[in-house]
Amino acid sequence: MKQYKIFVTGKQGIFDPAGETARHALDNLGYIGIENLRIDKYIQLDTSDTVTAEMVKEMCEKLLANPVIEDFLIEETVMTVAEEAAEQTKAEADE
Amino acid sequence: MKQYKIFVTGKQGIFDPAGETARHALDNLGYIGIENLRIDKYIQLDTSDTVTAEMVKEMCEKLLANPVIEDFLIEETVMTVAEEAAEQTKAEADE
Amino acid sequence: MSRVEDLRFGVVTFPGSNCEQDAVHALRHLGYQADYIWHQDTDLNGFDAVVLPGGFSYGDYLRCGAVARFSPVMAEVVGYAESGRPVIGICNGFQVLTEAHLLPGALIRNKGLKFLCQNVHLRVEESVCKWVDLPAGTVLDIPISHNEGNYICDEETLAGLQENAQIVLRYCEPDGSRLSGGSAPNGALDDIAGICNQRGNVFGLMPHPERVTDGVSGSKAGSVVFTAIATYAREVAGR
Amino acid sequence: MTEETRIPAAIADSIETLDPELAAQVAVQLGLTLDEYQGVIAVQGRVPSLTELYIYSLMWSEHCSYKHSKKQLRNFSSEGEHVLQGPGENAGVISVGDGWAVAFKMESHNHPSAIEPYEGAATGVGGIIRDIFTMGARPIACMDSLRFGTLDKPRQRYLFDGAVAGIGSYGNCLGVPTVGGEVYFEEAYEGNCLINAFAIGLMREEHLTRAVGSGPGNLVVLIGSSTGRDGIGGASVLASQEFDEAAENKRPAVQVGDPFEEKLLIEVCLELLKRGLFVALGDLGAAGLTSSASEMASRGGVGIDIDVRKVPQRETAMQPFEIMVSESQERMLAVVKPKDFAAVEEVCKRWSVACTAIGTITDTGRFVVRDSSLPVGSDIVADMPAEMLATSAPEYDPPMARPAYLDELQQADLSWLTKEEKSIETLNSELLTLLGSANICSREWIWRQYDHQVQANTVLLPGADAAVLRISDTGRGSATNRGIAMSTDCNGRYCYLDPYVGAQIALAESARNLACVGAAPAAITDCLNFGNPEKPEVFYTFHKAIMGLSDACRYYGIPVISGNVSFYNESFGNAIYPTPVVGMVGIVDDISQIVTGAFKQQGDTIILVGQTEDELGGSEYLKVLYGQVTGRPPLLDLELEGDVQRVVREAVRDGLLQSAHDCSEGGIAITLAECCIAGGIGALVDLDDELPAVASLFSETQSRIVVSVSEEQVSELITRLQQAQVPYSVIGEIGGESLSIEGKLEVPIAQIACTFSQSLEKMVKQR
Ligand SMILES: Nc1ncnc2c1ncn2[C@@H]1O[C@H](COP(=O)(O)OP(=O)(O)O)[C@@H](O)[C@H]1O
Ligand SMILES: [Mg+2]
Questions:
Q1: How many angstroms separate the CA atoms of D398 and D533, rounded?
Q2: Which of A13, A21, A63 is the closest to C66 by Cβ?
Q3: pLDDT band at residue D389 under the 50/70/90 scheme
Q4: What's the CATH number of domain C8-237, 3.40.640.10, 3.30.70.360, 3.40.1190.10, 3.40.50.880?
């Protein structure tokens, strides 16, 4: 099993209404020193081992990000068998 | 300057219809091997040095995440002067 | 083909579309023929114009219009548009058109982060759009109803839109003027409410003219958006 | 799942009955009383298995069984010539003429919304909409009736903002217009907000479908979303107990709605129903698969056999009871003939909706749940008599006691209120204070977030007294000239001060709102929101409200065709105001005749139909300006009310009126201000009623409607009013740029409009 973490972020200069609003709200709550706040998308993709980073890049270009307004960044984590087992146990424990 | 990366993710067991729909769409585009897809929030927070991780945690609890249905994770990056300068130049170039 | 009723509109139904019936109703009310096109159909022959209706295709999940854009019908719509035949995208349909790159730019979340359902004033601009045939400066009163109608594009694209007269409708004040901070309730760049492609045959707009065609709530202001295209559609069809 | 209810998996996976002692313990943890647990044993004839215990505890919960309210609800009459389906199904149905029928119902989602307002309110809308298309009707409109604490509290702003966004998000995505509603802000709702959703659907009479299972051998088919752990112990458990810190533990039970899936379900189900491919259809609401399957079986007098492993699951390792009681949203249960299953699958596939046969109808009368992952022979995890399960829940006759506060408050002397002479300046500013107060100011901030025009049948936009929808199958058939009017009302403060009269006023005001648009009431639904029914004082108010409502309904011949009860709206010992919300539906014969409340033209005569009395008890004036909730609510004379409504309704229908708007909270001064604001024109008024100015302006006397009439029609209207022996007075004329009330107040329209329209948004956005 593989896990890809994909960050789909607004391009520089593209207005981020949600981020702006949250920043204002933090100001209003009295937090000082917030210079910038962006809210973007974080996509976690669990795939079989056959899915390559190249394929994920293609998925982003095609569907997961809109090149007109968004950039993306892909991080790959290949899980070892042990990790996978750990995830499994964790999931079960959470239940 | 400090930068915090915040991951706001749906709690275990909280249904993510958007992720489901995107997964279906990838299936339909012919990608095989996608097992799971979650769409969550990724927040980048640039702050002055005075803003502590403790404060960011509070911001998440109060505003940025919804404790009823979301978990959050904070990563802190303190930028070196050099990095800051680089960011600056990049931002200027982008404008 | 001289009579209105000889013109046939096709209205696409994507999963999650919810204004396709309103569009068909409005078009029929205006005397046209109108029929539904299923998103998996690939035959657009026989339609003199195609409507991508409002709604929430695929729940607006991921990004509005992003998934619908890959429907089989959209590949055909692209060819149809490129051949110069008339295509209109209303609200979600506009979002689909931008995702499919038939129109430039993108539509993001409203500035105030709230869904907005209200009447707006729209000023008709001098444009190459085949769908609107009204003197520049005319003010229309048509409702909007969307969460993501905040038009955005880069500066170069904006300059291009302005230069090529592709901006068709702008949000404005009741007298047609613009406020200095902008008159768009959703924060749209340059108050843009509707744009067309360079050829003028593909038109995307956030407001819902189909809701105000038969006078049910007292207004028929939206009719003009569907009536001007008849002449052009006839020409292209060569009929 | 909370800590306490965690049970060893080994026991859970077997029909094996529980150890009797453990069973009793679990029963109590699940909310059953020991007596009720004995009842379970009696019905089962043995100690139940774990799955059975879960099922009983949910089916017999207050939310599913109405055990405290059933007897009282029998006071309602659902008789009426138009009634096609009364209470007992997913929604009530009435015929509206020419072969058209409407299904409608109102439902609460109070408790989930108090935990997560956005998802809670959204799934509330989703649930009520499913009740509508389950009946075979296309949902055509929603309304929402909301109650919160006051907006000076951040938590209340959060709840209000979230609930409105959630309601909007769901209805907007479905393409069902939200065309109106009501909202009040009162301290009494601080711990328990109320989110009541009212939905209506339109169908041809022949498509009416019921959730009655039949035909042994037929397939039981689950359609829609997959099943997860969401909502386990959710709505039904939450809504069956008081709200306190313990509720925090219920947090993971939050259900997330998927309106996109529901939109697909609407299309799939309506298509399949039209093609006659469903024997029965029901939605999965509270208590999920359990209640929907057992009720279907019980209504049809058949048995059902379900294999939980066939249910598509979105989480791993789900136990049978979890699958049976999950409240995952957007799921429907259908009964399908085996020969039709392929056709059903085909339609579902076309819409990308999952569709799975999970069981069969049997002739045993047993509700059997099996887990095919267990070895054959020990795979049955529950086996219950279906009919008994659905119908044998206990029925209580709780004790009642008249609350002491009633006498005290009703006897309060309010004469001081009108003693003081007030200057025009003072009254001007009092008017503005009221107009800008939370319960009176414009609701535009809310309805702007709701798509109120989709489907292109909305005749009257929100802001009118009643919503009006054109009867038309837009885009598929032709539009008619007829319409449906809807309204929802309840003044909880009146009900607090006098539950009997308050409930009657809720009905009267709803009907009056309809009269203003020329519609006659056809039937109502209701949503009865109360505190803990086990408290005699609360139960007394419940009983009185039901008596008030049912007496008034009977008097006017208005059937109650569906409804919902929400108890335990109580936190830290404080109950909400008794809040019996009425949702009314009426018929408009010609939508082109409708008038609105807006003053139309200069020079028109303004007439007050009805007569003002000094009735400031429980008024908005008393609350907003003096912070008091006391006194007697206004009286209601059912006969006079009926006459006033009839005259106005007929005058609207005959085209006599230019505008009509009823007097409600805030009195005639507010009504006149609203008429002026909506019309963008002033009025010159003389209220010659010999009452002290404050009473004259702000009294909330019932049975009053302000109408405006063009010069030519004045005498005709007056003749009609005299014939009907309805009191009236000619109070002025439209014109100018101010609302000017002779000797009492004078304020520019621009100023009152600004205060009225901007207040709510300011309150929401305050820091
Ligand atoms: N929660 C709400 N959602 C949508 N519309 C609302 C809501 N609350 C009030 N409205 C609309 O605002 C208008 C005024 O409401 P209200 O004062 O309760 O009316 P009335 O007193 O005539 O019953 C009505 O048109 C009503 O439908
Ligand atoms: Mg009112």
A1: 7
A2: A63
A3: confident
A4: 3.40.50.880
